[in-house]
Design goal:
The chain has 6 helices and no strands. By secondary structure, the protein is mostly helical.
Length: about 120
């Protein structure tokens, strides 16, 4: 089974995400808006890496799966779920370092938007 050991900066973001107030604010967001924000967060990485159209679609699927985990996984299982997800897509041939950078970008973007959307 593929897994990926997350870096400390990613673990710190996941700890912030796993707080009850952050998870409830995220869950209250419109699903389409959250997906749009996640895809905007990864776009710079797709451009910088020169990803092919096929790989761009795979990164987008990764982002959608990441959002699904954020919506459904219990707070105490999010880290393990993210490690498995990154490992899965690394097993499909995507670089785990890029996947982890994208994970941080998505979490950061969504956390920064949660406060304003939770009002």
């Amino acid at each position: 089974m593929w897994t990926h050991q997350l870096k400390p900066e990613t673990l710190t973001l996941i700890e912030r995400l796993a707080r009850p107030e952050a998870l409830s604010a995220f869950a209250a967001r419109d699903e389409g808006t959250a997906e749009e924000q996640a895809l905007l967060a990864i776009e710079p990485y797709l451009i910088a890496t020169g990803a092919s159209q096929a790989h761009r679609q795979e990164y987008r699927w990764f982002a959608r799966e990441l959002l699904q985990i954020m919506r459904t996984a219990p707070a105490d299982e999010i880290t393990a779920c993210f490690e498995l997800l990154i490992g899965k897509w690394a097993g499909f041939g995507l670089p785990s370092e890029i996947l982890e950078l994208q994970t941080r970008a998505i979490i950061t973007r969504l956390l920064s938007g949660s406060a304003s959307n939770a009002q």
